[in-house]
Amino acid sequence: MPHRKLTHIRIIAFTLLTALSYQSQAQSTDQHTDQHFQALLQNNKILKQGEKQFAMHCAGCHKKDLSGAVGFNLKDGEWVHGGKPSQILASLQNGFDKAGMPGFARILSQSDQEAIVAYILSKREGFESLTYKIYQLESDEDKYYGQNDLIASGKLNKNIADFELPEIKHYAIEFSGDFHVPQTEKTYLFAEHVNGLNLTLENNGKPVESEGWKGIVKWPLKSGKQHLKITYIAGKEGAWLRNIGFYVVNKDMSIKLFPVSTKALAESKKSTYDIKALAGYVVQQKKIIKLPPYSMAIGAPQQVNYAFNTRSCAVNGLWHGDMLNIGPNIGGRGKDGSIPLGDWLYHYPQQLMPTLTKEQTCSFIKYRINDNAPEFTFKVNDLTLSLTTDFSHKNQARFVYSVLDNPSNLTQISFVLPSAKGLSLSSQQGKVQQQTLTVDIASIKNFSIQMAWTGAKQ
């Protein structure tokens, strides 16, 4: 009996040692991977390669500037599946089938995978591995504290500084972590309505001198990655002043680049960031209310806007007036929908959509600016089409299609037409019947669909 018990203990000990060995090896591998990516971040050729591959394979869901559309924001500090280089690489390789993201392990070369991850890392913004410490003070006048005064500490998983954490009146709070800002422009840490507050900033362990006037304070930041510690010592100020809104801003403070604290994040969700097509066409790939995922918004100087969907090849929205308020999209990390500023003429499920067969596939190829207007190229099954627009006549939109390749020698194509009050549709090259347009593409390679309106559909 004692022999059996000893054998059992040995088995448990061996199992634990084996598990610890595997864990140690995995941690060592992850550390090596992370160090490898730090070297790649210094290689401009790799970053250019990553930018190109990201635009081809990732921008459709995460947007070209990584701010998030259908997929998550890839610039800020909130990483659902892990933000270390090794974790980002694993996410890219394995994908998330339930969320519609394929794994790229067998699609892209190892070099392209690593280049994409390096490019993503080069665009990061805000804190990484942010921690906080709260110290107990004796009174409003107490400005000194040490390790013995520490009453709470921890990690902030969303990497946003929360100044409402303390539940006591007299305290000091520190936020510390690696911090990322753009490498291409001069930036500042910025706070408003902080006149008289005891705020300090350390960068890589050294105090940073602030500039302040009329309740505004800013601290210069270094480019790229650095380590910041923000310290706030509470005094006699009221609770509403203690919840501080920190942003990173550009050199002349005209643009708030991204929020750093919870108050700033909440403010950015409520803020208005209007996008208007004043001097030329504007293309935005954002999540938009009343439109399905993968819709690209196009604004014209004539104050006519439409949405082209890269998954259905349909024009699934048309509105006149100004283009978009993207403030909710920015504040919501790409999850909240941007708001069209004008009046809807129609929106999804109404749409202008080419149809060939009941079970058809749409393959988006590219868009480019042609003759100062966006031109979309796509395939419906194996029929290649292009789409551009003409808004030169008031209260009219002309959608111009061209057949670029027809390997199956199809003789006709049909379009489902949108139905909306005050909207009329016509085509000189096709036949309209019961909200369907049919065009003879055996003889007609270029055709257009006109939409005219007298009022707006809300």
Descriptive account of the structure:
This protein has 3 domains: 17-122, Cytochrome Bc1 Complex, Chain D, domain 2; 126-270, Jelly Rolls, CATH 2.60.120; 274-453, no CATH class. It is 21% helix and 37% strand. The protein is built from 8 helices and 28 strands. It has helices at residues 2-40, 44-57, 59-62, 85-94, 110-122, 239-242, 262-270, 327-331; strands at 126-136, 150-155, 171-181, 187-191, 198-203, 206-207, 211-213, 216-220, 224-233, 246-250, 256-259, 274-275, 282-284, 295-299, 304-309, 315-320, 324-325, 339-340, 343-355, 362-370, 373-380, 383-390, 396-405, 412-416, 423-426, 430-433, 436-440, 446-453. β14 and β15 (304-309) form a beta hairpin. The longest helix is centred in the first third of the chain and has 39 residues, at 2-40. The mean pLDDT is 87.
Number of alpha- plus pi-helical segments: 8
State mean pLDDT (0 to 100 scale). Answer: 87
Tally of individual domains: 3
Radius of gyration: 28 Å
Instruction: Give the strand content.
Output: 35-45%
Task: Write the SSE topology.
Layout: H1 2-40, H2 44-57, H3 59-62, H4 85-94, H5 110-122, E1 126-136, E2 150-155, E3 171-181, E4 187-191, E5 198-203, E6 206-207, E7 211-213, E8 216-220, E9 224-233, H6 239-242, E10 246-250, E11 256-259, H7 262-270, E12 274-275, E13 282-284, E14 295-299, E15 304-309, E16 315-320, E17 324-325, H8 327-331, E18 339-340, E19 343-355, E20 362-370, E21 373-380, E22 383-390, E23 396-405, E24 412-416, E25 423-426, E26 430-433, E27 436-440, E28 446-453
Antiparallel strand pairs: 1-2, 1-3, 3-9, 4-8, 4-10, 5-6, 5-9, 7-8, 10-11, 12-17, 13-14, 14-15, 15-16, 16-19, 17-18, 19-24, 20-21, 21-22, 22-23, 23-28, 24-27, 25-28, 26-27
